[in-house]
Design brief:
Strand order of the largest sheet: 1-4-8-7-6-5
Distance between the termini: 76 Å
Shape: globular
């Protein structure tokens, strides 16, 4: 009997190592951060990571990723624009779906005149989508700003490490050089390779919201 009980205990999944000090970061915005003027955040979410620039260039996917994750992945189509750029990672309280978060962000942009230019979900985004969009080994894809607390900085490579229910929408307002774009990459974090960071993120939807607005 004792042997069977021990075997049953071994077979049970280990409890998630949720770290309170990490979880506390999900309730307050990153120091010095602010919502982009064009974005209406999802209710209850907070800014986990952010970078902003008064003038920069931003390239956003406008079509599915092509190729395999580890075999020459590339974007099938992109758009590039210059202007005020913000890249923000929001973390959402548990119990929300990636679809709910995406539609709320999309509705906020639609109210300001944006229209969808491309949309995909899960497999339709391409196998290599998450590898190209936000990946810990590709520093150019990460969101890491100056002056970030040490614990918060640990999440830079951990978000989107194991994305599930992945969704993406490219929103556009205007035409030509005056066009503004917003890329919404939303996914549920489930598992991952970052130990207690991944455990603390599990069950939370994160949203990478990227905006580029040309100067008037």
């Amino acid at each position: 009997f004792l042997g069977l009980a021990a075997a049953a205990l071994l077979a049970m999944p280990a409890a998630a190592a949720i770290v309170p000090k990490y979880q506390a970061l999900f309730t307050v915005d990153a120091p010095g951060s602010a919502d982009d003027p064009l974005i209406t955040r999802f209710a209850g979410s907070s800014i986990l990571l952010q970078t902003r620039a008064a003038m920069d260039e931003l390239t956003l996917p406008a079509g599915p990723a092509l190729g395999k994750s580890y075999s020459n992945p590339k974007w099938g189509k992109t758009v590039t624009a210059e202007g005020r750029v913000s890249r923000t990672v929001y973390v959402v309280p548990q119990g929300r779906s990636s679809l709910e978060v995406l539609r709320a962000l999309q509705a906020g942009l639609a109210a300001k005149g944006f229209k969808p230019a491309f949309e995909c979900k899960e497999a339709a985004c391409g196998e290599a989508f998450s590898r190209l969009k936000y990946y810990w080994q590709d520093k150019a894809t990460l969101v890491e700003g100056p002056g970030m607390e040490v614990d918060r900085a640990r999440f830079v490579p951990a978000v989107f490490d194991a994305p599930k229910a992945l969704r993406y929408v490219l929103m556009k307002r205007g035409e030509g050089a005056a066009a503004a774009y917003a890329g919404l990459y939303v996914a549920l974090n489930e598992g991952g390779t970052n130990g207690d960071l991944s455990d603390t993120l599990t069950g939370h939807v994160t949203a990478l919201v990227e905006v580029v607005e040309p100067a008037a």
